[in-house]
Amino acid sequence: MLTLSLALRSLRNRRLTTLLTIASIALSVSLLVGVETVRRGIRESFAGTIRGTDLIVGARGGSQQLLLSSIFGLGAPAGTLSWDTYQRWAAHPAVKWTIPISLGDSYYGHRVVGTTAAFFEYYRFRNDGRVQVATGSAMSSDHDVVVGSDVASRLRIALGDSIALTHGLRGTGIMDHTEHPFVVSGILAPTYTPIDRSLFTTLEGIEAMHEGWNNGIPPMSQLAMPGAEPPPMPGADAPPATQADDGAMARDDVMPGDQGVDTLAAAADTAAVAPDIHDGHDHALTAFLLGTKNRFESLRLQREMNTDTDEALTAILPAVALTELWHTIGYAEDGARIITGAVLLVGLLGMMVALYSTLQERRREMAILRSLGAGPGRIAALLVLESGLLSLVGAVTGFALVYGLMAVGQGLAERHFGVYIPITAPGKVEWLYLVGVVAAGVLVGLVPAWRAYRNTLQDGLTIRL
Amino acid sequence: MIDGAPAVDIRDLRFAYRAGREVLRIDALTIPRASRVFLHGPSGSGKTTLLGVIAGVLAPTAGSIHVLGQNPAELPSSRRDAFRGVYLGYLFQLFNLIPWLSVTENIALPCRLHAARAARLGDTSIDDAARQLATDLGLGDMLDTPVTELSVGQQQRVAAARALIGSPELVIADEPTSALDADRRDQFLELLFAQCTRANATLLFVSHDLALGSRFDQVLSLPDLNLAAGS
Q: Based on the number of CB atoms within 10 Å of its own CB, is B75 exposed (0-12), middle (13-18) or buried (19 or more)?
């Protein structure tokens, strides 16, 4: 106890160094814990993008491509599947429900999803969250469009606005479906998933919009129209000021010969606008989601679909595909971890340097303690205790900092990044960090302590200045 | 500690930091209990080394030393440190105090470090004893003053109080007055003598200032005693 109170007094005496050391450890710990928390939040948000769906089915292709295109609205789908095939599987005895999805059009870079009322009934995200219409109602006629909350707020779309969708997954311009405008019938409540960045129409709407198009080429009458008029923007002649950049960028995207970052996307668009997607009188689907009557049947059903000979399909288990995808992008989080670990190491080394640099001026103090009968072991213990206290206070402060920031920034992260970061009591990993940091602090303190021990033996009762 | 034994008893003591380079070579030296001994030694005569040996921080290369009847070399190092903490008081020339402790905390430190030293206070609490000593040494109005704000003379008095708390058997003072002017030096010596008498402690006072010697029971000359000096 005496050693502890001596350590505390000694630290208090060097107030500035102590505070700076604690601050540097606190910052590195908060970075470490913060990255861990955000990582977990992102991971959970990510994994919660789709729930309750047992299989995602699309044209034969990669499972990641299917997941990304159908759920995350990224990249282009591998192809289409026929309405007949969809009907056949929807009627399969093991299948409880299906949600058809038709992609291929966009609005200012936001995807348009053609689907049915089943989407609102069966699609689940996060913890059993349903997609809900905040204002207005779900689309019912082939001129209705329901807008995700992000799309509505970014493009300032209001209920009843008339909008023209764009053929292809990017840009606006000559490929606009101006001859088949849609009316906003509803705006969705925020889900903090890619749904917020999408628009929803009926399958009939998608089909009607492409009436007369051939091989992804608009009807002659439309091509004859002069110029490349931008589609009508709701409520204003020009895109709203805040969206001016978006609009400009979107238009640039379709400029011929546009190279660079858009090349890939342009290629993807071409694929998406591949022949026969929207043609013919059947609905051509991009994918469909399904729920089974008995979840244990999912695997068997998946195998059955993947080996279907009538039409080549790919069926994936969302959870498995999500985990695979997470592992693919997981290298980034390893990198973040390594960096924060290095930051912590620097913080601890800083503490060691701070303690070590005081040793010379403290030699006198050590000789005095020695004359009073304190052994070299006790003097070494004093230094180890000091570093232990510094790292403990630093680590606890760091944790407090993270939780404080999370309490403040939780809503912000949700609104701006669509990442919901749950504030939970420190878990096993956090406690491990806490113990690890204090242990590392003690370990680091052994270095100056060892030096002090040697000094003490060497100096004896000689006071060196 | 043995009650009747002399405070310090040295026989054929040899000490060398490095083999072949003797710093101390003392055939016989006895300091009786409750005496005030003045040890005169110019710098380089090996006095700091001798004090280190007596305090049990340095182990003799050969020969024997008994402090209060105990040979420190026979004790394990932790007991040797504790022995010093309980039975000895030590005064440095300068900078005696732990800068981040108050006056009373500095004085009380030996009793806090060693329960056996605190036990020597009897019924008096450590705080009371520290306060009493501070008052006796004229520090009554600066009990909680940071020691860094004290004058050198005041600092040395605090150090004396710390060396004397718990009535140690032997007080070793290594030139404690060398930084004081003549008036303050005499005043300090008076206080030190009075407190040593009260505590019934043996005082081993080392200085190069021979003028002080007349006030002591016994004056020893280290260059005469130490056959290794100057060689």
A: middle
